[in-house]
Amino acid sequence: MRNYFTYITTNNYRTTLYIGMTNDIQTRLGQHYFDSQNAKKSFAGKYNCIYLVYYEVFDNPKDAIAREKQLKKWRRDKKNKLISASNPKWETLNYEVF
């Protein structure tokens, strides 16, 4: 059985959010980091959104995609509340997910 993740990353100052979906979150976070240090071609790379601050796990990819689309439509204050509810200090969770 495979896990699918909807996730939110941010930059060092917590001013920019990136919302994505993946089935391999560690690899994806590595790609964001690599792009932030090199080409800066993606949104996450350009704005250095390499710090995982929120994620949800799904069994079904369609559910993860639907949640990603839902979160992307939210206003910033609603996204902030979602993150703060499970991660009040907005700590980096990159090493929490395997």
Automatic annotation (TrEMBL):
Superkingdom of this protein's organism: Bacteria
Pfam families for this protein: GIY-YIG (PF01541)
GIY-YIG domain sequence ranges: 2-81
Database matches in CDD domains: GIY-YIG_unchar_3
Gene3D superfamilies cross-referenced by the UniProt entry: GIY-YIG endonuclease
Coiled coil: none
Family: Belongs to the UPF0213 family.
The name this protein goes by in its record: GIY-YIG nuclease family protein
